[in-house]
Amino acid sequence: MDSQYQPKACPTDYDCMGNSCKARDSDSDGLPDYLEKQRGTDPLNPNTDGDRYNDAQDPQPTIKNSAKINYTVKAEQQANTALLLTAAAGCLIGACGAGVDPNVALQKYVWTFQFTNTGDDYTQSYSADFIIYNLPQKFNNRAECLAAIAAGAEKTELYRERFTSGTITAGSGFSKQFSYDLTLFNIPQKILKNLLNQGDSTIGVIENEQYEKYA
Ligand SMILES: [Ca+2]
Ligand SMILES: [Ca+2]
User: Fold this and answer.
1) Cα–Cα distance, 26 to 21 (Å, whole number)
2) What's the 59 CA to ligand 2 centre distance in angstroms?
3) How far is CA 12 from the centre of its chain?
């Protein structure tokens, strides 16, 4: 006696569609479930690691790729010694200062920033504020100055500029240079007093950074 006809069942992770078995893609990310299981991704989540790329496009589908912008800064300070000595002698302000050109820099500050994406993903845009602060005390080095700012030291904002950059791929970057002259025109009296007493510290810092990152 012939055995009764039994439709052949589709294997695990396949669906019977019409007369054939089709590989199932539960999360519709383009990768069939059986392949996701082989690769170690979640068949029910189109973006297993939650970064920018769906599993089918992700070169590292279980590692959360992310952009990471780092910067290095080179700071230079050039004092106009002759003018500072004149100032220290009290000859810049008041009657004695009539002959002094207020555009001439007492101090010139130059900052060179090099920004680099050290992550393994790109960022579509980057923006940050570059702010020059003056603090009414003297620091031995930049690290001490930054620590004091972080601790909430009283500071006076001298200059601010927002700069932006477009796409920065992994391993690439851009650089910016800023210079700022402390002159009688643009220096607040309070800072001038500190400067003449050799008690000031001027520093440029990056704040309010914004860019896409996933980790
Ligand atoms: Ca899938
Ligand atoms: Ca991913």
Assistant:
1) 15
2) 8
3) 47
Question: Under CATH, to which class is 69-211 assigned?
Answer: mainly beta
Structure-block tokens of residue 89: 């002698």
Residue 187 tokens read as 């220096």
Identify the three-state secondary structure at position 79. Answer: strand
> How close is the Cα of 50 to the center of ligand 2, in Å?
5
Q: End-to-end distance of the chain based on CA atoms, in angstroms?
A: 66
User: In this predicted model, what pLDDT tens digit does every residue of 162-214 receive, in sequence order?
Assistant: 989 999 999 999 999 999 888 877 766 666 666 666 566 788 899 999 999 88
> How many other C-beta atoms lie within 10 A of the C-beta of residue 106?
20
CA distance 156 to 173: 30
| 5-22 confidence digits (pLDDT tens) | 666 689 999 999 888 999
Give me 141's structure tokens.
């080095």
* Closest ligand to the CA of 43: 1
CB 215 within 8 A of CB 66: yes
Closest Cα partner for 148 from 134, 161, 158, 159? 134
pTM score, whole prediction: 0.72
The single residue listed with the structure tokens 């001439």 is 104
Cβ proximity of 108 and 80 under 8 Å: yes
Distance from residue 96's CA to the centre of ligand 1 (Å): 80
List, by residue range, all CATH 2.60.40 domains of the chain. 69-211
